Amino acid sequence: MEPVGPANGSAGAPSQDGEAAVAGADDDRSAEAARYSERLLNEGHERAEGDRCPICYLYIGFPIGDHSKMNVCCMKRVCKGCALAAQQRGIYDRCPFCRTPHPTDEAFGLAMIRKRVDKGDVEAIYHLGEKYYYGGLGLSKDVTRAIELWTEAAELGSVDAHYDLGIVYYNGEGVEEDEPRGIRHFQNAAIKGHVLSRHNLGVSQIHEGNCALAIQHWTISAKMGCEESLNSIKFMFMRGQATKAQYAEALRGYGDAMEEMKSPQREEAKRLGI
Fold first, then answer.
1. For the purposes of burial, counting CB atoms within 10 Å of the CB of 35, is it exposed (0-12), middle (13-18) or buried (19 or more)?
2. How far apart are CA 139 and CA 131, in angstroms?
3. How do residues 197-235 score in pLDDT, each as one tens digit?
4. Rounded alpha-carbon distances, angstroms, from residue 147 to 13, 66, 274
5. Do residues 189 and 166 touch, judged by C-beta distance below 8 A?
6. Coil, strand or helix at 261
7. How far apart are CA 171 and CA 147, in angstroms?
8. What is the value of pTM for the model shown?
């Protein structure tokens, strides 16, 4: 019996229409990737709203954890300047934002977080993931559970969750390494103003040998107050891979961002070592 082949053309050979369809699909994907790359560079130039102190409404400095405190009662991150101002007004044992008494121990703090997680609070879901990842508030370290919580938080719009997922997948920390997946998480966060995700996109471009695109990403994040991005551009400038004008632009933008984050209360907290 003769083998049954395609209706048109020789056995196993793709038709011209099929080749054209594949080529067209490739062109569409390339065009879509180019549009997304352009959008990524044009959006996310303002920091995410979660980076603002909810009391003074100024952006919090980097590293954010060193310049603020997360209050698990309301999941609001308050800058140290406003925390100091609250203490000076006699509010020592309460959240400066919602005035709820601070938890007296780790178990109480964990219970507060879980209560908000049960209500679908995205910040609480993300924060609980952090506690599982690092092993905090009496929880044993559980990377798998942390990633589950971060994935849920990312689906609900948490840029911090996208960032942490980007880290674990890009570096293969606790999961199988998957750089493209990690980059997608960085992109999802960067386009919404997550500064460190933007910086990491610059790092990924350096690894791909694309210095020009890396500098574009780092300029954006330097202008939002990321010193690491500014130093990366400075390093590129010293190696002759960035121009003096590019470094000067990043330096001016970084300086402006730092000035906008200052307040008398924050300066006093810094002086007091708080």
1. exposed
2. 7
3. 999 999 999 999 999 999 999 999 999 999 999 999 999
4. 45, 24, 32
5. yes
6. coil
7. 14
8. 0.87
